[in-house]
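REQUEST FORM: STRUCTURE PREDICTION
Request ID: SP-0412
Submitted by: Lab K.M.
Chain count: 1
Length (residues): 370
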Amino acid sequence: MKIHTVKITGYNSSGEGVARLDDGRVVFVRNAARDDILEIEIIREQARVAWAKIIKITTPSPYRIKPDCSVYPECGGCDYRHITYEEELFAKHQCINDALLRIGKFTNKVDQIINTGQINGYRNKAVLHSDGESLGFYKAQSHDVIPVEKCLLLKDDLNIAIQNMKKPVRKPGEITIRSGRNGTTGPLEEDLDGLVFKLNGFFQVNTEATKLLFRKAREYAALTKKDTLIDLYCGVGAMTLFIGRDAGHAIGVEHNSNAVNVARDNALRNRLSHIKFIHADVDELACNITDPDCVIVDPPRKGLSKKAINKILNISPKRLIYISCNPATMARDLKELQGYIIKDISAVDMFPRTANVECCCLLIKECGTC
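STATUS: Completed
RESULT:
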């Protein structure tokens, strides 16, 4: 076993510490902290990069803290319980700005990570796994189940629900539990600034941070009753309704038919008759509306396809709001949206104690394309 001594200089997008080996290769180390001096062992390597585990913390980072969870870091649910929350925000800030510069070649930067200040007890959804004997969450980088009766990320009523589940769970599989303003029984609802939504289908897991994200997107949209909004990948229509209530006309587009039905129901219950929903794949969307005042895109982690990018360019909105939980694919896509420039970019810490972060970017047409 060969031991390497390294100093951690930062973090990658997965929350691993970053250092360099003596031969110049970059090495990623899970559960490391910036300014740690570590003894590490290589566990996987390629020609220009390697992955390692910590053998010994020679000099601990000043940002390192004692984890407050008994199954961390064995459980794969969290990435940053070994560092301060301030350092976690630094890591996410670095990740976004690095992606913008390295992948997108943009000089634009996120100034700060907007956050609620609540790092525990924020999740309104949990996906539990059973292996036939234990009920809990997956170990990091595996499908082995760690028994868990309480997760610090979850709302109290979800933890109570987990503790009340019959154990052992003999049937292997996956169990999803959710919490809304009306408890943990269905049908669930959530309240966002006076609008009430059913939680069927996709909905953000952090309600309070979702409000921050939606408010920022609403600020960027700057709609009036004369304006038209198109929201692509709209899910159950929460953002379409939240922002589209300011518009004269709004359309949400979603490929999941069940989500579209819920979105339509949400529009009815909130008396927003000027907002319509279309069941369609964005890549194949046949839309007669061109030059709308604003288009919102909130694609999956893999980002936009070439077809979707071309579709957006053909629609040619005056303002384009791109929302993403993956800074790397966001930077890639922004670079491909020719004719648009970044006017402003913000970030919201939707997932404290994990490496994930939500971005919200406002793009406008370049003067030559106005």
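NOTES: The first strand starts at residue 4 and ends at 7.
Reviewed by: T.R.
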